[in-house]
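Look over this today:
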Amino acid sequence: MNLKYLKLAEDIKGELKKRNLPAGSKLPSIRRLSEEYNCSKNTVIKAFNELEKEHLIYAIPQSGYYLVNEPKLPDNQAGTIDFLSAGPDKHLLPYKEFQHCINQAIETYKEEVFTYSDQQGLLALREQLTNNFQYNQVFTFVERVVIVSGSQQAIHLLTALPFPNGKKNILIEQPTYFGMIETLKVNQAKAFGIELSMTEIDLEQIEYHFKNNDIKFFYVIPRFHNPLGHSYTNDEKKKIVELANKYDVYIVEDDFLGELERNKKADPFFAFDPSGRVIYIQSFSKIFLPGLRIGSVILPGNLVGNFLRYKFSADFNSPVLSQGALDIYLKSGMYRSHLKKIKEVYFHRMNLLKQSCGQFLPKGIHYTKPDSGFYLSIYLPNNISSKKLALLLSEQKVLLDDTHRMFLPEFNKDNLIRLCISQVHEKEIIQGVKKINEAITAFDNKKPHAIYPHN
């Protein structure tokens, strides 16, 4: 087997690293490299193909090959440690690559991206998403997939939408994503809460709500929960789906960080009942590009028509140019390469945050221990207000969420703070936890008895 192209690929990588070229730099032509390395043009093309697979370069037709942005992560010049912002790290966003995909989308789809298109979403993208879902053990048909302007739009529409079960109330985890809380307020929907910890959710309480409280759907974040970082076990998912079938309740599964899953045996709720009891939402905001405003929802067949009717009242169709560019990005393999890279980055940061909490927080302080994802939460002693602690830390340039907006009023105990790792780097994580420790210690003078959830 001729492996000359692999050696050439390694040589080119070494040369690029040595020259420290900026992102977007054009590589030498195929002809020039074939002459320089005394090899065929085909060997150079195969070497470039390997570097494309590694997400190091990208091609622009009839122009050449260009260097992908390899992010350098500078120290925060303002000195702020940001555990608050929950978008993806701006240094990891694939600007150049996606710009190329936008240009390709304009060329590929032409009229489609600048005119009204299928209200359900660009067919090519829905087909590509249907294939991509399978990596997460989600198997469905393109007819059930609807493109939305981010997961928030799907949540808002589903909250307002009448369901086939004829029920009106909604069950949510406590705490939960603040966007869901806000949607409930705007739609004046009645909600019931069920307490969630890292180790358990009360299945008997879920059954009680399903049976007695006219529950239309149960909104769940299955993996790397916001704000706790909790992930359900497969056994829990299966049992909850069984209860939903028994009591004619739908499950709205917001799997917004599911792509960061490292456990190949961990399945979504959807895998335990793909027939339509579980409505599956996926977003690209946290793991890819927030400004893309593209998400998708898998609906039961008898909900698609009504969902599209409600969506039409908000926007005729989601941005088509973004859809076309995302389709090309997925097809090219760049998305899987991007995902592989960021999974390792966020996994490493989360491990460092857990280690720092174990090393620097006061003894007796409980904190959640997510496997990966963006979020970790710390339970404060009863004598410390999460709002006051967050305010004190903000004065010291440590930003975090006091989580008040993530609770229904009757569930808020004012003792939970959330840390997000997406915008902080290694040194900042350690420094930030040390400052949190100092702030807790400053508050915690009397140290009364505190009750914590089991972890």
